[in-house]
User: Fold this.
Amino acid sequence: MSFDPDAAASPGSGVFGLPHSRSDSSIVLLPVPFDATTSYGGGAAGGPEAIRNASAQVDLLDGQFGEIYRCGIHMLRAPAWIRPLSRRARALARPIIERGGATARDARAVRAVDQACERINTHTHATARKILAQGKIPGLIGGDHSTPFGAIRACAEVAAERSRDGLGILQIDAHMDLRDGFEGFAWSHASIMHNVMSRLPNVCRLVQIGIRDFGRSEADLSKGSRGRVRTHFDLDWARAIDRGEQFDRLCDEAIKPLPKLVYISFDIDGLEPSLCPHTGTPVPGGLSFHRACMLLEALVRSGRSIVGFDLNEVSPGPNPKEPEWDANVGARVLYKLCGAAARSTGRI
Ligand SMILES: [Mn+2]
Assistant:
C-alpha cells in the first residue's frame, strides 16, 4: 500500500494519520494518561488521546525538519489499567491538595497515591527500555509531569552504557519541578526533576529553560548543585533579548553544558499560556511556539543526539465540543519533537 502524505488522514490510521506499525517506526510514542497530583487544574490524563485525535490535522511536510514522518512514528495504546488507576489516585489526592497538603492522618492515602505513581514508573521504565533495546527512540506523552520518570531512568541507563558522560536533560517548563516532595506526595508533578537528580546519578546535567514560577528551596537546589542544574529564567532571557541579544545565541549558550546524549522533557506550560490555556498550572510569560522550535533546532544544530523525550501536561479542557486548541498545539509540538529527535540521530 502506498502512503500519500498530502491526503487527509484515513479513519483507523495511526498518530499523524501515519500507516506505520511499531516495527517500521524509529520513534515509538508511549501514552500515559495519568494525572494524580496536578495541583490546580486536572485533565492531563486526557492529553494522549486528545493529542492523538488532533494529530490527524498536522501537515506532514515540516518547514523546519522536512519529511519527519519518513522516520516512522508509531503510537502505542495505553494499557487499560492506567485511566482507572489515575482516577482512584486522584480521588485520594484531591482532598489533600485542596486542604493545602498532607497531614499525619493522610498517611494511608499518601502511600496509596505514591504506590500508584510507582506503578506508572515501573511501567514506563520497562516500556521505554524495550523501545531503546530495539534501537528506537521513546517519546512519552503524559499525563502530568510525574509520568516520565521511568522513561528518563531508562534513557539514563542506556546513555550510561553508550557514553561515560551519561545523560543530559533539556527541560522546557514554567516550573523548576525541584521540590523534595510536594503536598506530601513523593512523586508529585512538581518533584519530577528533584526525583531525577536525586535518584538517577547517570543524569549529569539538567538545563531548564522558560522558568518563571519557583520556590526558595528549588532556587537553592539549583544554585547549590555546582552546575549540575542550570536554570534559565524566562525574564532574564526577555531582558537579554530586549538589550539586543539574539535568541539563537541564548539557546546555543544554554545548550553548551549538555553532554552528547540528551533527553528532552517538554512541559507544555513552558510555552505562553495562550498556547495551553487548560494546562494544570499556567503561568504568564513563556516561550512562543516559534522560539520553542528554534530551541529544538539549536539543539540539533549543536550535534547532540536525542535519546528520548516527553511531552507532558497537555490538557484538552472540559468542553468536549470546543475545538481542542491545547491538543492542537500539543500535536504540533509533538511532531517537532519527533523531527528534532529523528534529525539529531540521522534518521531523516
Ligand atoms: Mn513541569
User: Anything to note?
Assistant: Residues 145, 173, 175, 177, 267 surround manganese (II) ion (CB under 6 Å). The longest strand covers residues 203-211. The chain is about 40% helix and 15% strand.
